[in-house]
Amino acid sequence: MHATQIRQAYIDFFVERGHARIARANLVPREDPTTLFTGSGMQPLLPYLLGAPHPTGARLVDSQVCFRAEDIDEVGDTRHTTLFEMLGNWSLGSYFKQEQLPWLFEFLTGVVGLDPSRLFASVFSGSPRWSIPRDEESEQLWKDLFTGAGLDPVVTEAGSAAQAAARGIGNARIVAYDESQCWWSRSGPPDTMPPGEPGGPDSEVFYLFPQVPHDPSFGEHCHPHCDCGRYVEIGNSVFMQYRRTQDGFDLLPQRNVDFGGGLERIAMASADVADAFAIDLLAPLLDEIRSMRSAQGSADSEADRRAARIIADHTRAVVFLALDGVEPSNNTQGYVMRRFARRAIRQGLHLGIGDTLLPTLCTTVVSTYRDAFPELVQDEEHIRGVLEREESLFRKTLARGVRELPRLAGRELTGDAVFKLFDTYGFPPELSVEEARAQGVPVDPNWSDTFKKLMAEQRARSRTAATGMFKGGLADRSVATTQLHTATHLLYKALRLVLGDHVVQRGSNITSERLRFDFSHPKKMTPEEIARVEQIVNDAIARDWPMRVSEMTPDEAFAQGALGAFGDRYGTTVTVYTAGDPTGEWYSKEICGGPHVAHTGELGRFRIVKEESSGAGVRRIRAVLE
Fold first, then answer.
1. Which of 72, 174, 243, 549 is deepest in the core (most CB within 10 A)?
2. pLDDT, tens only, 142-193
3. What are the angstrom distances between the C-alpha of 450 and each of 193, 412, 543?
4. Contact, 60 vs 90, CB < 8 A?
5. CA angle 59, 64, 68 (to 5 degrees)
6. Distance between CA 290 and CA 358 in Å, rounded?
């Protein structure tokens, strides 16, 4: 089965078993300060896994587009991608292991048609330290399932991945790992979980690609959690039933199932190809890249193939980021998007592709996903415009780099100069060396070592910034942050009143000290416009309007004039906050997840501190409450 068929078959399979299909969440999580991007299917559902009732019921299914920027350095091989689809099904206290594992086995073998003899399962071996028992129930279920398929369900104790690599697993079909491998929470194993964090044992399914030889650099023996590519994880059933406390673990009010299966990886298994870029979601991009460089006539080396895979992955990522309202910039999500876009363009230069790369490949991405995500077709013009502007800007930056090379290099091109050209102008290091030699500038033979050292230091800083300074949404739910968040509603309406209905929210970042609000507008605001916006917001505060809350369908909300964040996707029910006259006249009506003050009069005086550019066609306001 192709990936497009697998996606629909999965949705249908679980809908037939009483699950409600929910819309995918935006790649930029709103009201979540813990992460820049939606990196898993469960992330938007955390409140419901903790016990809040979901408006569509206790059984859910979806296909969630996810993005993990931390995997950028792994992209280029045949397995790693930064953007991927996670097939997910959830039980919010409705069913548990006895239903989940047989359903999963039935879907993989009976619907997708995978060979059971190529499937392997992991189970949780227990944690004596935390008094969490072994998952004997999942172990017995897998024994029964494999036996029913005519296979010998041999179980082995693996311990950690390192222990499994040292001693092997023999002919085991079911492998018991400790909490370092078979425990799931957003924060990792039990030792690293903060109080209040939910988690539980998990049971993974792996597909064996016997045609892939074991790489001993990953350990003496291969096993399901080996990273050599011989085994590939295609699904993980998390049995989320515990909550971390100060002293240990308590049971959650309900036992949950949280399943995530990589669509691309299941498609790899179905096609029996150990290459994610050979499936129908990515192969068209590689075909288009080959056609764009066909006139160059260069050999198809492994370096070339790696460059093409990077371009394909990064283009797909920036297209979906643009769809969900992100635009390239020098901070937060925009910083990550810019890095991906420019890295793809640099790889295009390696392949000799000098024309517009991203806009051309954008068409291929939209065509590939048009049926699954029709919003791509609806927003294609906007997405293409974002990518065209960024590529044009970057190619001009590269041209400046060529002019700056002689000055930075001086009498010899060193690794420091190569890094400066790369970091400031995005100039590829190999191109710096080639250009220096063409201009007759000597090249330090040790330039590469210095460059790699400086790049490693930059990556370390970048990893720290993604976990630290780059926070989207709300920094916390304090009174001050809540007040400033409520003020963004009034600001949004005031901007549309003063500047026009073309104003659309493009992002926000709110701390207890200030709010930051990004919006679409083609030019700098005048002092008069800024003063008028301030006046309108402060008038709304002075009226002390109540913040009324109601639930309705998205269609009803939009019919009533409610606004939503650009790119957001909604389920069957949304929460709408209205600030205005309780007799019927309204000032601001917006789809939002909260939190908010009860009355606008609680906000104090609103003052715009700064108005500036946040990117092409996007302005940014920083404001405070006094």
1. 174
2. 999 999 999 999 999 999 999 999 999 999 999 999 999 999 987 889 998 8
3. 38, 14, 62
4. yes
5. 135
6. 14
Structure tokens at 578: 């209205």
- Is 473-625 in the same CATH topology as 3-277? no
Q: What are the DSSP E strand ranges found in 3-140?
A: 20-21, 59-67, 83-92, 119-124
- Per CATH, the number for 3-277 is 3.30.930.10
Nearest to 233 by CA among 104, 143, 127, 106: 104
Phi–psi pair at 486, nearest 5 degrees: -60, -35
pLDDT tens digits for range 555-578: 788 888 888 764 455 667 788 888
The CATH number, out of the four listed (3.30.980.10, 3.30.1450.10, 3.10.105.10, 3.10.20.30), of the domain defined by the range 473-625: 3.30.980.10
Better-scored residue on pLDDT, 459 or 291: 291
Percent of the chain scored above 90 by pLDDT? 55
Q: Ramachandran region of residue 467, left (φ > 0), alpha (ψ -120 to 50) or beta? A: alpha
Cis peptide upstream of residue 216 (ω within 30 degrees of 0): no
- Whole-angstrom distance, CA of residue 290 vs CA of residue 299: 11
In the chain, where the domains are located: 3-277, 282-467, 473-625
Q: State the SS3 of 465-510.
A: HHHCCCCCEECCCCHHHHHHHHHHHHHHHHHHHHHCCCCCEEEEEE
Helix 263-271 vs helix 3-15: crossing angle, to nearest 10: 110
